């Protein structure tokens, strides 16, 4: 299939074709003794992911585990559907997110407030998963991939309080979710992902530092794809966090409202990133839609209002 890319070590990248576009959100299949899907993508992507797994020889009773780095709908919106397709699979998520997969009512209501009429088109509806099938991870935990191979989970909030990174003992691959930001393979840039309501600068920087200390061989971004320049990209991730926070803090101190802060930060940061080639421009625009300047600035302002209430 043209949306499946072998990455070595029995790992396959799956383009989930979020909202019909390519190169926005990736899931990953670890095809070992106990096949494991990392990230489901959205609900509307679930049939795409199922077809990809079928093409790799994974039938309805073969998938052992579905694990998500966090419960945002572009990563976990398809959990309920995938759980239905694969009745033997255990669903694994950090303990702070588990109840929302069992009962998505609050999560979907919150998403509706953010996305409005675009919710159905972009994400669809997260279906509930039977609580008995959900395994809640502690801050440090392990997932059995069979044959002595494990995915160790590492609590990495900052982007979201229910976020974990996942390290493959066999390959050294680290599934970073959104905690290291959004990687743009079209330009080689990495940009922050700082949405409300959970963003916290110190916690986010600590998560990036933790990822570096784990010594991964490769980073597998949900947005988007594999990166071998581990140290360079993680350093850039931390740098971008600091730059965006400093700029947003300036806007906050000047009493700017959200729209003016977004305009200022957007203008000031634009020069930090390479312009995509014409054939890549649409993909980059779509990525901007799910992790763009307005969401990043809104998340930082939300944090500043709590952390530095005397400003402005």
UniProtKB/TrEMBL annotation:
Signal peptide: none annotated. InterPro entries: Metallo-B-lactamas, NDM-1-like, RibonucZ/Hydroxyglut_hydro, ST1585_MBL-fold. It comes from the Bacteria. It holds the Pfam family Lactamase_B. Residues 24-223 form the Metallo-beta-lactamase domain. This is MBL fold metallo-hydrolase. It comes from Sphaerisporangium rhizosphaerae.
């Amino acid at each position: 299939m043209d949306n499946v890319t072998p990455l070595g070590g029995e790992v396959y990248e799956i383009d989930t074709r979020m909202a019909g576009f390519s190169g926005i959100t990736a899931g990953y299949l670890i095809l070992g003794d106990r096949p494991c899907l990392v990230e489901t993508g959205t609900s509307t992507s679930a049939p795409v992911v199922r077809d990809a797994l079928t093409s790799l020889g994974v039938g309805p009773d073969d998938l052992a585990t579905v694990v998500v780095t966090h419960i945002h709908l572009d990563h976990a919106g398809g959990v309920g559907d995938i759980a239905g397709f694969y009745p033997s699979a255990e669903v694994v998520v950090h303990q702070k997110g588990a109840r929302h997969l069992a009962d998505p009512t609050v999560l979907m209501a919150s998403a509706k407030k953010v996305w409005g009429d675009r919710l159905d088109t972009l994400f669809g509806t997260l279906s509930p998963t039977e609580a008995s099938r959900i395994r809640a991870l502690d801050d440090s935990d392990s997932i059995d991939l069979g044959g002595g191979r494990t995915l160790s989970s590492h609590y990495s909030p900052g982007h979201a309080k229910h976020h974990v990174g996942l390290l493959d003992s066999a390959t050294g691959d680290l599934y970073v979710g959104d905690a290291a930001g959004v990687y743009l393979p079209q330009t080689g840039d990495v940009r922050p992902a700082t949405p409300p309501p959970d963003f916290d600068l110190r916690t986010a920087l600590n998560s990036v530092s933790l990822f570096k200390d784990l010594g991964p061989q490769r980073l597998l971004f949900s947005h988007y794809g594999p990166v071998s320049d581990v140290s360079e990209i993680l350093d850039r991730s931390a740098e971008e966090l600091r730059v965006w926070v400093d700029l947003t803090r300036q806007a906050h101190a000047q009493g700017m409202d959200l729209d003016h802060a977004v305009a200022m930060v957007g203008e000031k940061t634009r020069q930090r990133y390479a312009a995509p080639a014409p054939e890549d421009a649409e993909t980059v625009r779509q990525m901007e839609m799910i992790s763009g300047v307005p969401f990043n600035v809104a998340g930082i302002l939300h944090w500043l209002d709590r952390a530095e209430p005397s400003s402005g």
